Amino acid sequence: MYDLAPHLDAEVEPGTNLLLAGPPLTGKRKLALDLLAAGTDAGDGAIAVTTKDGADRILKDYAKRTPYDGRPVAVVDCVTRQQGVGDVRDDDRVKYASSPVDMTGIGIKLSEFLQAFYRDRDIERNRIMVHSLSTLLMYSDLQTVFRFLHVFTGRVQSVGGLGLFCIDSTAHDDQTMNTLKQLFDGIVTLSEDGEPDVRLAQ
Asked: Which of 136, 127, 75, 72 is nearest to 104 (CA)?
């Protein structure tokens, strides 16, 4: 079982995908990073797929939570190459997709990390964060994003991982949100005041 306390009073089975939804500045990214770091402390692998911040910023924020040197913490960076920043190359910690539109590339880079963690470190449990689905929806239509997430969540499920997917709920209409919610085992709704509301599918 994954224990989400102290942040969330809920336990979820391995292979669970959670949608973290709420308006801007309600702490979705913070919560996802906290849960990744808690997994790292428990010996899980952690992979952050970032469509908003470069890998450097993600790793800097991660280090505030728990040391990651020598530990299985990795980033799929979908931002840096799109911004045309220098000649960045993949390494053991960071792999670069060309942009948030490159969903095939994102999936491949994720698989490479999962395989490397398993092959080189014998790590079977991983926590995977995607921040943010709203950026993917800015660049691609709902059908494309849905297909990508269907494969992505299936991968998390098949490896017994914990998937954490952030979305700005105010940026999308009800139809979009309801369509995407079908893919997830639970919804964590964050608001500006109060504790996160956790609803797990029965």
From this structure: 136
Find out whether 95 and 109 touch, Cβ atoms under 8 Å.
yes
Closest-CA residue to 142 (of 98, 183, 107, 83): 183
Name 167's bridge partners.
Answer: 21
Domain boundaries, the chain: 2-200
pTM over 0.85, yes/no: yes
Q: Comparing C-alpha atoms, which of 34, 6, 10 is closest to residue 185?
A: 10
Strand order in the sheet with 16-22: 94-96, 73-77, 45-50, 126-131, 162-168, 16-22, 186-189, 197-200
Q: Domain 2-200 falls in which CATH fold?
A: Rossmann fold (3.40.50)
pLDDT in tens, 77-120: 999 999 987 689 999 999 999 999 999 999 999 999 999 999 99
